[in-house]
Structures are given as structure tokens and as C-alpha cells.
Amino acid sequence: MNAKEYLSQAYHLDRKISYKLDQVKLLRDFASKANNVLSDMPKGSDNYKLMERNIAAMVDLEREIDDDVKNLLYLKKSILMVIKNIYNPEYRTLLELRYLQSKKWSEISTIMGCSLDNVYKIHRNALKACHVPKQITVNYSKF
């Protein structure tokens, strides 16, 4: 795994968490709509089983999100340690803005007070200065 892939893991995991939070919101909305429909219908076990399955799916997803958030915090701490080991403060600033704060290149350019081309050049050099640990990887592709 190269430095860019390693540093980008936090962004991808954060996106995965956002996606799951959206799913939980949809499940909650569906459950509340189903609950309104169920209250007007005659009592039937099939309707309650459906609602029970939806609630169970929501709880499972919330547990997954909790695990992902713990992994994200651990990963960000690990990334921060890698960045702090870089001697050049300009490199550290750029990498923190990009990979820990998820800033866009144009924002980084403004914050650092330099051209976009110069930001890209600093980024290339900063990536070369990164020493990526071998043991830490997160598989963010599994949903």
C-alpha cells in the first residue's frame, strides 16, 4: 500500500459511515410509516414480523456504524502519527488538511496561501516523505 492509499483510508471509511447513517435514516422513516399503517390495520402477526425484521436490521446497522466509527478514530490517530513523523511542517499541514480534515485542493491552496500547482507539488513531496506502517489497513469496500 502506498502513502496516498494509506492516507485516503480515513476518507473512504468516513464515506462508508455516512452511507450507513443514510440507510439507518431510511429504515427509521420506513419503520415510522409502517407503524402508522399497522396501527390502522387489524392485528396480524405478519405485519408485526415485518416491522420486527426492519427494526432488527436497523439495530444491526447501528452496531456496524459504531464499529466503523471506532475504526475511523483508530485510523485517524494512526494517520496523525504518520503525519507527525514528517519533518517538514508544510508537508504536515497539507497532509492534515487533505487527509484528516478532507479539505478540497482549492481550500488547501487558499489556507496555505499558494497556487494550486504549488499545492500539488508539495503534496507529491509530502507523500514521498511518508512512511506507511505495514500492519494497519481497513477494508472499506465491504457493506
List the helices and strands and how they pair.
Blueprint: H1 3-40, H2 45-84, H3 89-100, H4 105-112, H5 116-129
Helix pairs in contact: 1-2, 2-3, 3-5, 4-5
Provide the descriptors you would attach to this structure in a database record:
143 residues
What this model shows, in words?
78% of the residues lie in helices and 0% in strands. The protein starts with a helix and ends in a 14-residue tail after the last helix. It is elongated and about 65 Å long. Helix 2 runs antiparallel to helix 3 (89-100). The protein has 143 residues and is mostly helical. The protein has 5 helices and no strands.
Shape: elongated
**How would you characterize the largest beta sheet?**
none
The share of residues in extended strands comes to under 5%
Q: Average pLDDT across residues?
A: 85
What is the terminal separation in angstroms?
Answer: 21 Å
Count all strands and give the number. 0
Parts with pLDDT < 50 across at least 5 consecutive residues: none
Tally of helical segments? 5
Using the CA coordinates, give the radius of gyration.
22 Å
Based on helices, strands and strand pairing, what is the structural class? mainly alpha
Order of helices and strands: HHHHH
* Secondary structure: helix percent: over 70%
Regarding quaternary structure, how should these chains be classified?
A: single chain
Gist of the model:
It is built from five helices and no strands. With 143 residues, it is mainly α.
